[in-house]
């Protein structure tokens, strides 16, 4: 079974987050698609999410998760001690999402937007992008 990580394809922080996941996903559990792609837009519709969703999204076992729930569920499948971060799921969602929303609201200011140049993944990683 695999899961799909949907991310903002214009965001440097989101791109860095995807690269972080790829480097720590030795089992190849995750596939990836930008929110702006045809696959991303199809998944947003299937899960009754707005087309202009401004959040990381995880589709896993037929369910869609956004914001901190998505990020924490991703950590469960990463190599190493990153799995321990999933324990933060016990915190109330409004508290977790307050931190998530603060970072999301400032991500372009802090990390910028992608230009037309991007890293070309290896063939093994490239096949995981939908």
UniProtKB/TrEMBL annotation:
Coiled coil: none annotated. GO terms for molecular function: protein-disulfide reductase activity. InterPro entries: DCC1-like (IPR007263), DCC_oxidoreductase (IPR052927). Pfam families: DCC1-like. This is Thiol-disulfide oxidoreductase.
